[in-house]
């Protein structure tokens, strides 16, 4: 019973994330909702009958989220700073500097959703002081996070394979679904022409 109740609760959350006005026009269709939040990801497959969702399958990865994408950028930038500025200690050992770097990497990750490159700037409070500026490209972000995207694709494919019903439309929810590599049809996550952003992004 506990497992069933938990599944129902998760499917209810997925349904609540949908754009209900859009869903009302989808009667008879099979909808897959993919949510990539800050710390978790889930894929939920429904069939809509008389305006009511009926759960077909549900898959969840409790260890995949937008924070993981940001963490890859943080590690890359920390190593780059240490390599180019050898006199500095590892930025990850300085709590204040690490917080600033993480916030800046989060900003850069979002910026690369609509730019090909951006600059990551980190201010230091050590004896050397100053600001370190480093370039981050979308191509590098994709290189750093390719395996995370593959996990997202696997989650969607697993959910889609959970029943015999094909998918008519996929809805993307969560700020990290705006990452171009996540939305790229060539990655296998969005094989359907009807894909759209579902409701307001929530991460």
TrEMBL record:
It holds the Pfam family HSP70. Gene3D superfamilies: 3.30.420.40, Actin, Chain A, domain 4 (3.90.640.10). One of its GO terms (molecular function) is ATP binding. Keywords: ATP-binding, Nucleotide-binding. Coiled coil: none annotated. InterPro entries: ATPase_NBD, Heat_shock_70_CS, Hsp_70_fam. PROSITE patterns: HSP70_3. This is Uncharacterized protein. It comes from Oryza meyeriana var. granulata.
